[in-house]
From TrEMBL:
It comes from the Bacteria. SUPFAM superfamilies: GAF domain-like, PP2C-like, PYP-like sensor domain (PAS domain). The lineage of its organism: Bacteria, Bacillati, Actinomycetota, Actinomycetes, Streptosporangiales. InterPro entries: Bact_Sigma-Reg, GAF, GAF-like_dom_sf, PAS, PAS-like_dom_sf, PAS_4, PAS_fold_3, PPM-type-like_dom_sf. PANTHER family: STAGE II SPORULATION PROTEIN E, STAGE II SPORULATION PROTEIN E-RELATED. Keywords: Hydrolase. Transmembrane segments: none annotated. This is SpoIIE family protein phosphatase. It holds the Pfam family GAF_2. The keyword Hydrolase applies. Residues 32-80 form the PAS domain.
Amino acid sequence: MNGATGSTDGFAGASAIPGGEQLHRAGAAFGTAPAAMVVADRAGGVTLANHAFTEFTGRTQDEVLGRPWPEVCDRADPESAWKLHRAALGGAPVHQRALVSADYGGVSHRIVAEARALPGTGTEGKPDGVVVVFREPLREEETLRVISELRTENADTALWTLDLRSGRLQELFGPSPLGRLLAGDARGLDELLARVHRDDIARVRDAIEASHQGRDYEQRFRMFDHVGDERSLHARARYIPGDHPRLVGTIDDVTEHVQLIRRLADRRRIEAAQGRQVTDLAAKLVSATTVEEVTGLLTDEFAPIFGGAGAAVMLVEEGSLRPSPAPPEEDAGHMGLAEEHDASDIAHPVGAVVSDRQPRFFESRAEILERFPGVAEFLHRTSAQSWATIPIFGDRRVALGVWQVSWGEPHHATPDERALMLTLAGLAGQALQRVRRQQEELQLADAIQRRMLPPQIARFDELSIAVRYLPARAGWRVCGDFYDVIRLPGRRVGLVVGDVQGHGVEAAAAMGQIRVAFRAYASNQVDPGAVVAETNRLLSETGEIVFATCGYLVLDLDNGEMQAAWAGQPPAVIATADSYDLWEPETGPPVGVDSDSKYPVTTRRLRAGDTLLMCSDGLVESSGMPMDEGLRIVGENLRGRAEDVEGAAASLIGLTPAGRGDDIALLIVRMNGGG
């Protein structure tokens, strides 16, 4: 600093110290005559100031003497200087330093202040005051200050220090934009902690408590700024030991970074959810059993994946494109897909797609009009703005139809969207072909099955008989459920209900074989167990992998005696007008499993007025209905209708307690003559 003399007579007010003793003691405290120096009493009031200091600050002696030196040096924020003063009075073993402000040359500067207690002993062993030396920062210190200020000037960063004894928090180089945003005029730690997010406050407090044990500090937490917005912060600090331990560190506003991470995480979650949705819907396509299910998935569930406002499907049938399902008359959301269209009309997008099997994507009305002017009349009836028209392929790239997705605003289909649409359309084409083959098989199997069931059952004066067959609603499933009533010699009647395991034409054909076998063996065998055993042997020796559950009983019309041989069939139900019970004949394994199986015979009497129900398991058992519960429901229903077998059969077919996932065959017999 200019004006530094290093001489003892350079102090204003030196005459107040006899022999200049205090001046010498002050200089000795630093081992050299200072360039600019003040001596202050315990209260901080300046008692001595050399000429270098007065010239440096530009203040007269009257302005300096008697005033607290921290306020003389740093009128804007004297707290750092006061901390320095108190530390020196506390007898710190090393020089205490601080960066304070000083005005000289008409400009505010940051200078280094060093303070130490005056040598000698005052009253009660306490120092009389302090000596403070001022100097310009070293080049390295100035460089560090400039870099630090540049770092915080235009960045969401603040440099801070926390006095661990007083809990006072301040910024190292004065207020920064981030500091003003977070703290405003607040300086107390508790006041600032009150703004920390309640979910983070305990963690932040625990980390500060750990710093009292000499640990460095690092935390990420959320805090509300002075306008109430939530900020995400990252604070780091080093622990500085000493008589006045403190933390010195940085705090960064990482709100934008956290928000970016959240957006990326949300995007990943959305993409993962979409992936799961596509997988689930693709699985539904694979398991679809009707054309309506397939096209319904394309129109109702796949379109929202792409943000489409709607979708439609047209299938090729006899050279024409027909909507599937047929849309409501008032639906004009899809260009020309609400009515039948010529599949060979390449002047229309749907016909062009069918013809060359290439998808078409139109981002705007102008784009589609430029390529297909003939659609102008359709555009008057729709609010859609952009379209994707995708071919639905079958084997050998045969076009089965067209899937069209529309948007209510201009939309650019990304390469990923286009690839996914083509993939889903391909899966839909495979599903359509499979469904059509299954439906053809269904029609054939159903025809075979109905032809193999007896067109008319035998009738007896002593019996009232009702039979029913109900195909499953589980898509294309056709099973081998059957019933029969066989007229036997000696006023006897054979009653049989069975269920061939399997589906389709094979099951229906096997059912016909078993029914014929029962009739053939029953005409020559009195013992029902032998009839079932012979049928089992025949089925086992054919080499076909097919088996069946069945129940066969012989009823004597004269005395009502029943002899039953069971092969895995559900129990029979016997009901009157007032009650019901279950009859569980002893059973053997299903027929067709083991050619050497034997089937025991169980006997019971059917009295006049009793009603007997034999049924396949489709009536009383399913994945959601235990057989015991199904039999209970059927028994309760039959009890109230035992006198009317046709009414009872109709009621049970309407009830179907186990649902319609399997075929149902039932046979109801009532011994006439009872009340």
